Amino acid sequence: MNVTWYVVLSAFLFAIGAAGVLTRRNPLVVLLCLELMLNAGNLALIAFARMWGNGDGQIFALVVMVVAACEVVVGLGIIVGIFRRRIPEDVDALSELRG
Amino acid sequence: MSATAWAWLVVAFPLAGTIVISLGWRAIPGRLPGWIASAMILGSFVCSVLATVKLQDVAPGARHASSTLFDYAHSAGLNIGLSIYVDPLSLFMAMVVSGVSFLIHVYSVSYMTSDRGFNRYFAYLNYFVFTMLLLVLAGNIIILIVGWAGVGTASYILISFWYRRTTATAAGIKAFVMNVIGDAALVIAAFLLWKNAGHHVSYAGIFAGSKTHFSHNQGTLIAACLLLTVGAFAKSAQLPLHTWLPDAMEGPTPVSALIHAATMVTAGVYLIARFHPLYEQAPTAANITAGIAAATLFFAATCALAVTDLKRIIAYSTISQIGYMMVGVSTGGYDGGLFHLMTHAFFKALLFMGAGSVIGAMAGIQDIDRMGGFRKSMRFTYITFLIGALALAGMVPFSGWFSKDEILGFDVHRGGYSLILAIVGFAGALLTAFYSFRMVFRIFHGDAVPEAESLERGELFHGEHVNPMTGEHEDTDVGFPGAEHHIAERELPMKFAMGILAVLAAIGGIVAVPGVTHWLRNFLDPSFADSRFVHTQPTDTASWIGLVIGAGIALAGITTAYVCYLRQPGTTARLIARFPFLHRLFVNRWYFDELYDAVFVRPAATMGRFGHYVIERGFVQGTLVGGATRIVGAGTSIARALESGYVRAYAVLMLVGFGGLGLYFLLQAAF
What we know:
The complex is a heterodimer.
Chain A: H1 4-23, H2 27-52, H3 56-84
Chain B: H1 3-23, H2 32-56, E1 65-75, E2 78-86, H3 88-111, H4 118-137, H5 141-159, H6 166-196, H7 203-213, H8 219-236, H9 244-247, H10 253-262, H11 267-274, H12 276-281, H13 283-306, H14 310-331, H15 334-361, H16 379-393, H17 399-414, H18 417-444, H19 450-456, H20 492-507, H21 519-524, H22 540-567, H23 571-578, H24 580-587, H25 592-642, H26 647-670
Antiparallel strand pairs in B: 1-2
Helix pairs in contact in B: 1-2, 1-4, 2-3, 2-4, 3-4, 3-10, 3-15, 3-20, 4-5, 5-6, 6-8, 8-11, 8-13, 10-15, 11-14, 13-14, 13-18, 13-24, 14-15, 14-17, 14-18, 15-16, 15-17, 15-20, 16-18, 16-20, 17-18, 17-22, 18-22, 23-24
């Protein structure tokens, strides 16, 4: 089976996600774009699993989903905190860790 | 108990006192530390007398014993025990040291009462006596060096006792540095003797070894003896290592009496007497030692003529008198030298106590130009000081008359080179008599100064608290002298100590009256039985002729002083106007301090400043340490610039990084 199209689609999705992370300043949108990048990765993993004909990639994709769920929990928690404290919803404004 | 057991107790008592007082300084109330310290020294004295009594039981030839407590150091070829050596010489020293120290402890109990450092003072004082007794009783040259260095330390901490006085701390450092010169010389001497005289550290071993390993007057032996001399001269303040002693008068007056008159400075005399077999085998070294000592005794006497600080006059007198002892022990007149050591301990401690009493009455002022007429107001001090001065001047029949003239009589009898030394000694004796009575007449006679008048009315003069050297104002807290000053008439312990010393200074001569008593010689004889000079003794008639000459010289000096200061006051001013150069020379102590300042102190200070500013600050801190910090700083500033705090910037970095890595692996796979 030819996985080229799947991988190309995955690369497109990843690039869209990465561009979103780099360009958008709303933390909620940045989080969404991160999800997009993760799922692009998942798509590639499953495509490769199909290509090799074993389940390793699928299991890896499940792990990535778990990681994504955790990340969403933490990320959304932070975003809710930001809204509660009426901190501007702008990732560039959140730069207290500057060295 | 054996003699050595008693001797161990002699050392143990003051050590116990130091430990008890320094650990319990908070808990022991009032004057009790002073009394504990005094009791310890009294214990030492009693034990040394008992050891002596015990030692007299055996035949004269067998009157020496040593005892080892444990191995002090046991390593490559060296087996040094913590041992003591008991013979008439060491017990004589132990008795003089502990006896005089006891009286000075008692005197100090009153003198230091109001001082905030009372307990600390007595811990130090006991420590000093402990080290001194360890020095004189040491069983081998290594323990001797331990005691020697301990005495130097004790001297340093006691001179700097009033540690907030900058002049006192400077004097302490000066004394310590000078003493360390001597310590180093002594250590090298010990090494030379150990290496070349058959690897012995015990006295008996060294002397036996030097007999077999060295020929008469061999170079190495002369070098070792001269190094011993340097050690002795540093401790005993002889030329050219004497400048620390006058400055050491910054310490409390009883300390001056204890260390710088009665005991510590005589350690050098003891050292030479102890090592007399070596000096007799190396006469060149002995002659050099005696020659410098003779020069010292004359030089110091001239300084004592002109200096006006009361304690410094007595200090120069000490240097001069130790010169006599040094001449005595290095020319072979051991009995005379040690006899003078003993009588000098009595009358010099007495003079210092009298001086402390006068300085107390003057509220800290030490300049004799400001004093006068204390005769009526301080009768007890006057009488005791007069006895001390008469003994120092060598007047009939006080103790100094017998002892000084025994040294000079011996040297006249030995003849040759020693005769020259004796003539210098007689000239010094004239000056001694003059400056002794210069003190007496200037302080006690003449018109009464306001301080003396207020004392006659029964009130002690209270001045401001100032440093007598610089005039700086001081408070009376710890680190400075206490508020109250005590004088002899008002305190029984001081009166007690001065009274006993006055009696001893007056009658101390009876232990060796030519032709009548030979107690001292008979007692010390076993220690010096191996001496070449044991039979070189002047006849009794010759001794008496010497004594008469000595008395004449003393009388001449006293009369001159009487004429100069009481009969025709102003004579000295005319003399100063007549010989301004000589006066400037004497007042400035022959410019020794200035010379050392220019030759040693200032170059050393310049080098220190150079090292500080150029090497330390410029090179080490600037280039080495500074360079390293600048490199690290530059690196971290790059890392800090990367930490922008912008999440999107981090994301770019991550993407670029992972993209770069991926590209790298792709290219690797491709080629």
